[in-house]
Every structure is written in structure tokens, then in C-alpha cells.
Write a structure and sequence with these properties.
The protein is of the alpha/beta class and 257 residues long. The chain has seven helices and ten strands. The strands form two sheets. The protein has a five-stranded mixed sheet with strand order 3-2-1-4-5, sandwiched between helices. It has a five-stranded mixed sheet with strand order 8-7-6-9-10, sandwiched between helices. The longest helix is centred in the last third of the chain and has 28 residues.
Length: 257
């Protein structure tokens, strides 16, 4: 069985695959202060019923790269693959500086390349809201990065003296008649408008309609306020991309660090 790990700025998402089927997923906080030994205990507890024979990790938190890789290697007695742009990706990175491509964005692009038609726009609603864009040939062109919903909520609370901290939720009207609803409208409806508008602009640059794939926890919430709906919502797209990348690189001995 394969363990695919997506280490984000807020959460670590873990998925167990048997061949092409995802059996179970887990989510942990991305705690940079947690020692390796504690991660080993967590991994052993969560996955003791599975026969994990391989592991691939995508991380955007440099402080956790070595810690988590070594924890997984020790618990499962293997040599985990740490995703970088130096691996066999199966797609072309048409970026001015390929080193800038985040591991999660590479995994998203690879997942979309395998699972969906092209051109494709992947909208990942995480700590940041990112667009990862594949052209008609499946080449990764780059994309868009904007603040995610929780970042917007926190920024409004921390940067002002009177605006409260609230959680993402539905909002019935664009015109909020109290502070909380006004904030929700600005962040939720505003993000939906921004996403929809950026999709249109990206499609103009691509020269044709794209398949729109959403991933991340707030996909369904944002979709409520968009006229142009997502073609697919795949909460496990990053993990699916990691599974594909593992298959491409499992015989490569040069992926340790």
C-alpha cells in the first residue's frame, strides 16, 4: 500500500492507496514544533492496520520536510519520495523558474493531467487559493495565487480594531445588515467573484474553454455563489497526483533529499 502525504501550511493530509483506489484519508495539523518522535507515534497509531510499503510526500513547509520524511521512513522501514521539480513529473513545467513551483501545485497539475481533459484550470482552496493551469497539450503554464478564505478572515480581524474574527459560512445576501454578514459577503462572495472572473481571464489567454477542477475544503461553499460552476470537485486531487508521481518515480534511486 502507498501512503501519499500532502503537507500544507495549515494541515497535513494523508491518504492510503491500494493500487488506484484510495482507502482512507486523515488530516493532522501542520505543527513545525512537533518533534520527529511524536510524528512517528502518530503515523504508527493511524496506519498500524495497513501494510505501507511506499510513501511519497509533497510539502510546502520546509521545516517539516526532513522531520516527516524521516518519521515515515522509520515507522514503515522504507525510503520515502520527497517531491521536487527534479523528479520525473510526466508533464512539462513551462515556468520561467521551475524551482518556484510548489510541490502541491505540481501534484495538482499531475493529477489533472491524468484524470481530466485539457486545457484545465485547477482551483485549490487552501491556506492560499491557487490556480494551476494546463494548456491543451497538458503543459503546466503557471497560474494564480491569492489569499485563501481563512487568511482573509484573519487579516480583517488582526489589522482592524473592531472587526471580529469569524468562520466561513453561507451568506444569504450580498448586502450584509450586520458586521458578521458583511464580512462573510466580502470574503465568501468576493472570493467567488474573483475566482469566476479569473477563470474567464485565464480562458481568454488560453484561447478556449477549460475544464475547471476544484479541490480543497471550501470548494462546495464557494461554488454556491458562482454562475460558472466547477466541472469537477475532487477533494483528493493532490493525493491522486502524488499516486501518479510515485508510479513514475518508484524505480528512481535519487529522490531521498
Amino acid at each position: 500500500m502507498l501512503l501519499a502525504v500532502d503537507i500544507g501550511n495549515t494541515n497535513i493530509t494523508l491518504g492510503v492507496f491500494e493500487n488506484e483506489s484510495i482507502l482512507e484519508t486523515y488530516r493532522l495539523p501542520s505543527d513545525k514544533e512537533l518533534p520527529q518522535e511524536e510524528y512517528e507515534i502518530l503515523l504508527h497509531t493511524l496506519f498500524k492496520k495497513y501494510n505501507i510499503h511506499a510513501c511519497i510526500i509533497a510539502s510546502v513547509v520546509d521545516e517539516l520536510n526532513r522531520t516527516f520524511k524521516h518519521a515515515a521512513d522509520n515507522v514503515f522501514h522504507l525510503n520515502s519520495i520527497l517531491l521536487t521539480n527534479k523528479l520525473n513529473l510526466g508533464i512539462k513545467l513551462k515556468l520561467k523558474n521551475p524551482k518556484e513551483a510548489g510541490a502541491d501545485r505540481i501534484a495538482n497539475a499531475c493529477g489533472a493531467y491524468v484524470l481530466y481533459s485539457k486545457p484545465a484550470i485547477i482551483v485549490d482552496l487552501g491556506t492560499a487559493t491557487t490556480f494551476d493551469i494546463l494548456d491543451k497539450n497538458g503543459d503546466f503554464l503557471g497560474g494564480v495565487i491569492m489569499p485563501g478564505l481563512n487568511l482573509q478572515f484573519r487579516a480583517l480581524n488582526k489589522s482592524t480594531s473592531k472587526l471580529p474574527k469569524i468562520e466561513a459560512d453561507t451568506v444569504d445576501k450580498a448586502i450584509g445588515n450586520n458586521t458578521a454578514d458583511a464580512i462573510l459577503s466580502g470574503v465568501i462572495r468576493g472570493s467567488a467573484c474573483a475566482i469566476e472572473g479569473l477563470i474567464n481571464q485565464c480562458e481568454e489567454e488560453l484561447g478556449k474553454k477549460a475544464v475547471i477542477i476544484a479541490t480543497g475544503g471550501y470548494s462546495s461553499l464557494i461554488a454556491k455563489y458562482m454562475k460558472r460552476k466547477f466541472d469537477f470537485v475532487n477533494p483528493y486531487l493532490t493525493l491522486e497526483g502524488l499516486r501518479f508521481l510515485y508510479e513514475l518515480n518508484k524505480k528512481n534511486p535519487d529522490f531521498t533529499e
